[in-house]
Amino acid sequence: MLAWDGLERENRYHCGNKYGSRYATRRRHVTNLAWLAGAAITALLCAPLLYVAIVAGRKRLFAYRYDVRQDADYDFARARPTRIHARIKGGRLEVPARLTSQNTVLLALRIDSTILGHWFEPRVDIESQAGRFRQAFERGGSGLRYVNLSPLDLRSQTSLHLHGRFVRIRDQDVTLYYLPGDRDIDQQRILVISPHPDDAEIAAYGLYEGRDAYVVTVTGGDAGDPGIFSMFAGNEAFLEKGRVRTWNSMVVPMLGASGPIESPTSATSTAR
Fold this sequence. Notes:
Elements (H helix, E strand, L loop, with lengths): L1 H60 L20 E7 L3 E4 L8 E10 L9 E6 L2 E6 L5 E7 L9 E8 L1 E2 L3 E8 L10 E5 L4 H10 L4 E5 L18 H20 L4 E3 L6 E3 L1
Parallel strand pairs: 10-11
Antiparallel strand pairs: 1-9, 2-7, 3-6, 3-8, 3-9, 4-5, 4-7, 12-13
């Protein structure tokens, strides 16, 4: 009797282990399948967001068709500028007074974009008692750049404070270029040559507004990245882009009392 009871208990032990092992294996399989299903659903949900992030990153990091780490190179020899050497220390710069009221004052300094400066537009905020303004740079830009200080009232020596956002302005020796401006533009006839429609308005509207000025637009501005016009299909995107930019180049000058005129040799309109 004792032997039978022992054999029965041993059989129950082996059966319990057998079925318990099968249950644990099935449970592991179900858990693994649940994890795989969850990962697949997460991947499907995140794939569009990841795609948008990659596209946005490419547009921001590769938006320029030149190396933004190269120095800006300008030759001021023909302008016969006066060069003054100074130093930026702790974000401060002492700027001598303009030589004449018509001087254009350019500051040559070196910049270095931060990591965030590759995603967001880096800029330097310039403040003084004579006023304040902001100069933006290319995303990821570094090297030598020129900042136009002419908007400031520099009739006397001025102390500037430079604060970089998404860009580092290190302590450095700098050069100030005082370019002579001995022409009174109010007494001059002005010709602005614009590579694309609306370029003249962006770059020189304040120069020609209300003056005896002519704007010649060279191209239709329909080439290149269609940008927001990619909502149109095929070639229609480029046609719409050129149409809108051409309208801009004609309408915006009207705000400065410069209307469109027709060429005497053709029916092509240019902006005056």
